Structure formats: C-alpha cells, structure tokens
Design the sequence.
C-alpha cells in the first residue's frame, strides 16, 4: 500500500512553507501529461515561463505543475494522482533555492573541498547541497554534479542539516559557458564599429530602453506572464552583455511586473529563463 497520506501531508507542509511541490511516480519520474497535453498539444510553453500549476486538470509538465495551493493539492484530480505517488518533489527555483546534486562519493569530496558549507541532505548515492537563491539549471556541470533550480525538480528527502548559505558565485559559475573564439571576435568587432565606446553605456540610450520596457509591461492587458518574459528577453538582448544593467534597473522592471500581478518568484524565473534563452 502506498504512503498516500504521508506524501500528501509532506506536500501540504512544504507548500505552507512556500515551496512548490508535485507528486512523483515510482522511479523519481513525474506523472505523464494528461491526454489534453500529450506531446505539448496544449501549447504548454506560455505557462512553462513561470512556476505554478499548469492549466490542465491533472498534474503534468513536471516542474511546471509544482504548486503551493492547498486547494489544488487536495483537489479531486490531484488526489487520484497522490494515490499512485511514490514520492514528493519540489521546484527549487520556485522557492528561491538552488540544489547542487552530488551523485557519488567523488562529487561529494569535490564539494567539501570547493563549495561553502550549507544545508546538506543525504541521498541514496550522494548528497544535495542547498543554497538560498535561484539560478539556471544544468545537468552534468562536472562529473557527478548537477545544478537544479529554475525549470527543474528535486525529490524531497528531508530538511537536511546545517545552516543554509546564500548561493555563491562558485556555483553560478558552474553553468556559465566559456565564449567561443568567434563570439569573442564578434564582440571585439562590435565595440570597434562603435568607435571603441559601448553605446549601451549611454545613460539616455539605456534609460529609454528601460522606460519602454516598463511601458510595455504596464500596457499589457492579457498574457502577462508571456509579456513579462518577452520584455525581459528584449532588455537583456539589448543591454545585458556589457554590464550596463544595474540592480536599480532590474528592480524597476520587477516592480512594473509586480504591479500587473506577478510575484517576485515569477519575475525571478522569467528573468532566469531569458538569460538561459540568450546563453548568458
């Protein structure tokens, strides 16, 4: 007999803490898409841009189905799934967390020698090191090491031990791609063509871009998630590669999005997805 009550109780407790959760079937796999969403027939991309329950009647789309809504978790469609569940998973990026998944003893040794101490959760073959802060997810960043945060899910194995630390730069650097020679040459040519001065550093040019982005978000009457993501994508495409964007600029964009009903978590995920799309 499956531990239906225990899994649901755990899920509700995590949801109360603000951690988006979803059921897993045996083998740590998410439940398959509902018939309406098979092979992405429902056009699932728009609601893959932010954490939250998908719009179909049952849990699917893996991390995109993760939710903190107790009414969804205990609704008739989800209760049927919990009866088949083998475990509980959570979306770390949706909770503002990053998990460094260490899959073997060698990876654990590397982490102990390289990473700042933080909350550690034992797993079957290794450990999960959990940090405060969301980032891009990427598997295989080094032998036996995956980084799981936005657009990813992790099996819940308990609260672990140790004080959780802020996400360090050494973990962020694990997913950064080294620029190719052609990319480096292109960047040099672009700067040279502008007379050696980056046009993005012009205060008027940058200010105009931020104002237009704020106006675009504010004017959106529908598809707010999609508009916020596409606006972030446009801003980063124009201004994100030369260091001219500051925390004050991103705060303005997040504030505009929140005024349209977006949560800080949704803003962070949309921003991270835009960075991923641009390979930044």
Sequence:
């Amino acid at each position: 007999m499956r531990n239906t009550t225990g899994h649901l109780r755990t899920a509700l407790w995590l949801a109360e803490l603000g951690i988006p959760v979803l059921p897993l079937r045996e083998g740590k796999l998410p439940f398959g898409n509902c018939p309406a969403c098979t092979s992405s027939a429902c056009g699932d991309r728009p609601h893959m841009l932010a954490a939250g329950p998908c719009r179909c009647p049952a849990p699917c789309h893996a991390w995109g189905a993760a939710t903190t809504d107790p009414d969804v978790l205990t609704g008739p469609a989800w209760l049927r799934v919990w009866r088949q569940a083998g475990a509980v998973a959570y979306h770390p990026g949706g909770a503002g967390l990053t998990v460094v998944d260490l899959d073997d003893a060698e990876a654990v040794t590397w982490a102990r020698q390289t990473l700042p101490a933080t909350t550690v959760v034992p797993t079957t073959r290794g450990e999960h090191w959990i940090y405060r802060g969301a980032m891009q997810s990427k598997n295989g960043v080094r032998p036996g090491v995956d980084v799981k945060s936005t657009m990813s899910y992790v099996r819940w194995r308990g609260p672990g031990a140790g004080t959780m630390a802020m996400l360090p730069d050494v973990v962020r650097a694990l997913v950064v791609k080294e620029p190719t020679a052609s990319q480096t040459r292109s960047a040099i040519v672009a700067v040279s063509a502008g007379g050696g001065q980056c046009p993005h550093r012009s205060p008027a040019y940058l200010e105009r871009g931020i104002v237009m982005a704020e106006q675009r978000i504010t004017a959106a009457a529908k598809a707010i998630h999609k508009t916020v993501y596409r606006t972030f994508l446009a801003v980063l495409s124009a201004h994100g590669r030369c260091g001219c964007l500051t925390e004050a600029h991103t705060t303005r964009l997040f504030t505009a999005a929140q005024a349209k009903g977006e949560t800080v978590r949704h803003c962070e995920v949309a921003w991270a997805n835009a960075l991923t799309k641009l390979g930044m």
User: Anything to note?
Assistant: The mean pLDDT is 80. The chain has three domains: 4-89, 94-175, 181-278. DSSP finds eleven helices and ten strands in the chain. The radius of gyration is 21 Å.
